[in-house]
Amino acid sequence: MATLADLATKGKRNYARKIERMRKEYRLAEKRAKEGYDATPFGPTRKANYKDAWTAMPDNYDLKVKPGLEEKWAKVWEAKMKE
Questions:
Q1: How confident is the model at residue 64 (pLDDT cuts 50, 70, 90)?
Q2: Whether the Cβ atoms of residue 28 and residue 59 lie closer than 8 Å to each other
Q3: What span, in angstroms and rounded, lies between the C-alpha atoms of 9 and 36?
Q4: Residue 59 burial (CB count, 10 A)
Q5: pLDDT digits 0-9 by tens, 3-47
Q6: How far apart are CA 71 and CA 31, in angstroms?
Q7: Rounded-to-integer distance, Cα 61 and Cα 57, Å
Q8: Domain ranges of the chain
């Protein structure tokens, strides 16, 4: 049977592998997300800020992939699984 450390290692690989797909799916959701946000009762400034943020949002997945992040993810995941 796999240990928690083994499962965390597998999870780190899966996380890294999914980043490109997450970025693409995020971009595909842009139109729907903006339309949904337009339906909220927020004012024009909030709505404009949200739409402007989409220029960086999909690539935010790149920004999160920093040295040590996968290790941090594994440490937190393993601790949660022990609860």
A1: low
A2: no
A3: 37
A4: 12
A5: 888 888 888 888 778 877 887 888 888 899 999 999 999 999 999
A6: 34
A7: 8
A8: 4-81
8, exposed or middle or buried, with CB in 10 Å at 0-12, 13-18, 19+? buried
Burial, 69: exposed, middle or buried (Cβ in 10 Å; 0-12, 13-18, 19+)? Answer: middle
Distance CA 34, CA 50 (A): 8
> How many C-beta atoms surround the C-beta of residue 74 within 10 A?
19
**Confidence tier at 48 by pLDDT (50, 70, 90):** very high
Torsion angle, alpha carbons of 70, 62, 29, 74, to 10: 0
Both structure tokens of 19:
């980043």
d(CA 12, CA 4): 12
Q: How far apart are CA 28 and CA 22, in angstroms?
A: 10
Helices (H) and strands (E) in the chain, counts: 5, 0
